[in-house]
């Protein structure tokens, strides 16, 4: 699975580098974080495909990070526990949304196998969700977007033409309403061909969408800017 981005969160620099270097040798892109603040910076700038999280982080509580991540990060999580007696932490971690756990000491080969298995499950679930969403109709703020017909209808019943990139961008917002999406996430979602992506192209696409959706594009109420973080679709979405 080349090019998958894995974030390793562990306050032990030796363990962090041991895991990170091993995954890099197996064609993963790896970011490393010693605590929750560092992890937050990483996932904001480069959304992860998977997070490996040690529950014992010194000053930070791994379970509290799990709780905070549940509404901000969609990537699957593998938790690391310190010993076999921490069954309660493993159970709570799984209840909070962790996809797997591994107990120290562990072999790197076993960790790699678990990483690949979790990513395969996530990709399968994502593909199923995309197939379902491809047949869906989204309703938001009086607007309606038919995924099957690729048709956007205004509150007045007028059909609004969208380019392929605009359609992909709006679809990304509708799949994650009221969640901040980074520029990287939106660029990946909106690209049609790689050569269409260039510096600040996402701002141009956002402006074009606002001109079609907003009453006043200069004071947007649907697609808001979260300074330093990205953009958010700030309205409820119904899926039918």
Spell out the key features of this protein.
single chain, 240 residues, alpha/beta, five-stranded parallel sheet, 14 strands, 41% helix, elongated
Molecular structure report:
With 240 residues, the protein is α/β, with parallel strands linked by helices. It has eight helices and 14 strands. Strand 1 (5-9), helix 1 and strand 2 form a beta-alpha-beta unit.
Low-confidence stretches: 193-199
> Which structural class is indicated by helix and strand composition?
alpha/beta
Number of strands: 14
Distance between the termini: 34 Å
Strand content: 15-25%
Walk me through the topology.
Layout: E1 5-9, H1 13-25, E2 29-33, H2 36-45, E3 50-54, E4 56-57, E5 60-61, H3 62-69, E6 77-81, H4 87-95, E7 100-103, H5 108-133, E8 137-140, E9 143-146, E10 151-153, E11 159-160, H6 164-175, H7 183-190, H8 201-213, E12 223-226, E13 230-233, E14 238-239
Task: Give a brief outline of the structure.
This protein is α/β, with parallel strands linked by helices. It is built from 8 helices and 14 strands. The longest helix has 26 residues.
């Amino acid at each position: 699975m080349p090019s998958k981005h894995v974030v390793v969160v562990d306050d032990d620099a030796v363990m962090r580098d041991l895991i990170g270097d091993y995954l890099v040798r197996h064609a993963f892109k790896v970011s490393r974080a010693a605590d929750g603040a560092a992890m937050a910076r990483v996932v904001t700038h480069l959304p992860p495909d998977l997070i490996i999280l040690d529950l014992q982080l010194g000053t930070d509580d791994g379970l509290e990070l799990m709780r905070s991540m549940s509404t901000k990060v969609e990537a699957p999580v593998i938790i690391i526990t310190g010993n076999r007696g921490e069954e309660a932490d493993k159970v709570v971690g799984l209840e909070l949304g962790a996809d797997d756990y591994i107990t120290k000491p562990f072999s790197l080969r076993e960790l790699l196998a678990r990483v690949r298995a979790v990513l395969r499950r996530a990709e399968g679930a994502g593909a199923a969700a995309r197939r379902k969403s491809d047949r869906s109709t989204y309703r938001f703020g009086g607007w309606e977007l038919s995924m099957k017909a690729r048709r956007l209808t205004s509150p007045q019943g007028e059909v609004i033409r969208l380019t392929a990139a605009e359609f992909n961008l709006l679809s990304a917002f509708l799949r994650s309403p009221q969640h901040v999406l980074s520029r990287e996430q939106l660029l990946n979602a909106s690209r049609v061909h790689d050569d269409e992506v260039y510096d600040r192209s996402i701002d141009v696409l956002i402006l074009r969408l606002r001109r079609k959706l907003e009453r006043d594009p200069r004071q947007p109420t649907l697609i808001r800017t979260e300074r330093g973080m990205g953009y958010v679709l700030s309205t409820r979405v119904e899926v039918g």
